[in-house]
Design a protein that fits this description.
This protein is mostly helical and about 120 residues long. It has three helices and no strands. The chain has a domain of about 35 residues. The longest helix is centred in the middle third of the chain and has 35 residues. The N and C termini lie far apart (about 85 Å). About 0% of the residues are buried.
């Protein structure tokens, strides 16, 4: 009887092959699970990722500078331009909020002079 509860015919070649495949896959999965859960594997993976990132850093910088130069030649905004614009809009919004708070504070003690609900 196999693991899933069905009986296979021992004379059926595909049934035997399927059983062998299932057993091999189960053993392979267990072996790989044990392998990747070790400190040595984690250290080796970390070292490979470090080397990969170190090797790709100059290429990434070259691509960024090429893209920035291409966008400038096409008179299109770069990522830095969008970030700078977003920061400026955030500052403007904060100043408007401060001005609104000050106007609200000035209107409250006056008592009935200026009220938003009485438009």
């Amino acid at each position: 009887m196999s693991e899933n509860g069905t009986r296979t015919d021992p004379l059926d070649p595909t049934g035997v092959l399927k059983g062998m495949r299932d057993a091999a896959m189960t053993n392979w999965a267990q072996m790989m699970t044990h392998l990747v859960n070790t400190e040595a594997y984690a250290g080796a993976t970390g070292a490979m990722l470090d080397a990969s990132l170190s090797a790709s850093a100059p290429f990434r910088k070259l691509m960024e500078s090429t893209m920035a130069q291409s966008l400038a030649n096409l008179n299109m905004p770069s990522r830095e331009d969008f970030i700078r614009l977003a920061e400026q809009l955030t500052h403007i919004e904060m100043r408007l909020d401060d001005m609104e708070a000050k106007l609200d504070a000035l209107a409250r003690p006056a008592g009935g002079g200026w009220n938003r609900t009485e438009s």
